[in-house]
Each structure stands twice: as C-alpha cells, then as structure tokens.
Amino acid sequence: MADRDGFIWFDGKLVPWREANTHVLTHTLHYGMGVFEGVRAYETAQGPAIFRLQDHTDRLFRSAHILGMSLPFSKEEINAAHLDVVKANGLKSCYFRPMAFYGSGKLGVAPKKDDVQVIVAAWPWGAYLGEDGLEKGIRVKTSSFTRHHVNITMCKAKANGNYMNSILANNEATADGYDEALLLDVEGYVAEGSGENVFIIRKGKIYTPDLTSALEGITRDTVVTIAKEMGLEVIEKRITRDEVYSADEAFFTGTAAEVTPIRELDRRQIGEGKRGPITTEIQRRYFACVKGEDQNHADWLTLAV
Ligand code: PMP
Hints:
- This protein is α+β, with helices and mostly antiparallel strands.
- The chain contains 8 helices and 17 strands.
- 4'-deoxy-4'-aminopyridoxal-5'-phosphate binds next to helix 6 and strand 14.
- This is Branched-chain-amino-acid aminotransferase.
C-alpha cells in the first residue's frame, strides 16, 4: 500500500503518498487506541459521489467521543478532505480510510491527549468479499472468538484496537476454507461479521440483531430503509445461530462488503444455497442508491467534482 503515486490528506495538507509516514513510536501503533472509518464513493452520471459522507464523519466523531479522544479538525474539514483526495488522485470510484490516531509524543498507556493526527486516504477497491460472493453468496463459519463485551472495549466505536478481534475471527474462518466469520456475543447470540452487520430473512420478514454488541452500521441503516420501502417488516431482535441455519436467506452488509449474500453457515446450506430473491432485490436497490440511480435517495450522495 505504501509504494504508490498519489496524495493522502494528512493533518490538513495533501502529502505525496510515499511521504505520508509516521514514527515507529506512534502511540496507536503500540496500543490500538485510534478511530477510523470506511467510506465509499461510486461513479455516477454526475461524477464520483461519496455515499452517506456526513453519516460516516458523524460516526468518526462519535467513535472519538466514546474513546475520549478529541479531534483537532472540524467535521466540515474532514468532509472537505474526502473531496480533496478524490480530486487530487483523479478517482472515479474509491474506498476511503479516514483515521485519527495518537502520534509519537509519548509512550506508556496514557497517550498525550493533544497529540492526535488525522489522515484521509482513498484508493480504488472492488468487491470486498469478491464479485463472485456478491452474486453467488459466501460460506461463513461461526467464530470461536466472541464479539467484544460492551464493557471491555465497547462496540459502538469503530476503534482500531477492536479489529484485533475481527482479524482473529476472519483469519480463523479463512484458514478453515470459509470466506468470512460470524461472531456471537458473550451470551452466544449472533452479533455480526468481522466487518459486517448481518441480516436473515424468514417467511418474508427480515431480522437483524439489535446493536448491543454490533457496530451501528451505515449500510445496515440503508438496508433497513430499503427493506421498509419494499414493504418488508424489519425486526431487530436477538438471533441464535440455529435461526441463521434455518433462514430462507441471509446476507452481510457493510461499506466494504456492500450487500453480500450468505449461502452457508457452518456447513449448513441456507435456503436454496444461493442469493435469494429478497436479497437480490435489496442488493439491486442498494447499488441503485450508491450509483445515483435512485432519485429518492439523492440526499445520501455528496458529489466530489
Ligand atoms: N461491523 C463491523 C465490525 C464493521 O467493521 C463494519 C464496517 N464498518 C460494519 C459492521 C458495517 O458498517 P458500515 O455499514 O457502516 O460500513
């Protein structure tokens, strides 16, 4: 990732890609106390458009607030940084990585509170779980790793350190030949994927776990809105793994993963073992929204031209 042409927004300036560096004694590198986002821009008829930018920036600031971290830039400056990197890198569509981290001012568990640095990077990135996954669905394994307890690192902050749990779960699942992991909460109920929220469909109703142990996903919110527009009943409740086994359809949602059908969990085929009809329609509507083809949701887009 480091050896590329282009520019990264770093503490208020566009810095050449290869020079956007930090010291090895950077606090967040040692302890994981940082916050980040994953945002996407899609090519639309009007040019590149960032999907739900304000919602992502709001969550970045909420994550920082949860961790007691204060960001040295305003939300407006962070939003503008996204537009700057699209233009500076001549991107038509991209994935963005905004991140705030403690610099190298001090080591030891307690960071130097006023030593917060912020980046916004952007680069082209295709389907996170593969084009094939979007079409045919993926194979998922229930993880032996439990999702964070609300009083250990909490789940509402998109915090760097939380992703050690995601990496362990994802590595375990992929090493066993699956595409992704499904994590349960401390009580054994379904929480989310390593980087996705999860939905199941049974008898025409759509279910998703409540947010106690899951990230408040922006794609989750988009899909709930779409499902309601389709006239589907959306129910937030505790879900057990055997409910997933017996679902008619299941899918993951995430900015990176978009709407990815799940065709199998723990070697149990879900429904017909392929992308189901309701998932197909939700996915179609999702891509219409992000690509600016749904005028009813034009307010979710920020043009980066
Ligand atoms: N859960 C986790 C753990 C994630 O990392 C993500 C990706 N940000 C999501 C859910 C989905 O969130 P969003 O739809 O906002 O990308």
